[in-house]
Amino acid sequence: MNNNQHNEESEQADLNQLIHDARGPLNRISMQAEMIKLVLENDMPVDKALEAAAKIIASCQECSQTLEQLSKAAKR
User: Fold this and answer.
1) Phi and psi for 63 in degrees, rounded to 5?
2) Which domain of life does the protein's organism represent (predicted)?
3) Which residue ranges make up each domain of the chain?
């Protein structure tokens, strides 16, 4: 394998890792949105919904950072 092929494989592996890293926050966002839905449907304490909303915001910020890394990687 030549150096160029190795670099391409390394870049692809990095890209795959970033995509994987973006999926984690998206899964947490989905789960926390489901929690808010359950809270609203079942008259559960509002603080549970607020806690889930805070987790959604944090996960969105994490996902945004990962997407920024993806964007930088794509420009290389």
Assistant:
1) -65, -40
2) Bacteria
3) 3-75
DSSP H stretches of helix in 1-76: 3-41, 46-75
For residues 18 and 69, the answer to whether their CB atoms sit within 8 Å is yes
pLDDT, residue 60, reads: 94
The structure tokens listed for 14 are 């990095």
User: Measured between alpha carbons, how far is 16 from 10 in angstroms, rounded to an integer?
Assistant: 10
**What does the alpha-carbon distance between residue 48 and residue 7 come to, in Å, rounded to a whole number?**
47
Q: Are 39 and 52 in contact (CB under 8 A)?
A: yes
Angstrom distance (rounded) from CA 27 to CA 35 = 13
pTM of the model: 0.77
Closest alpha carbon to 32 in 51, 13, 7: 51
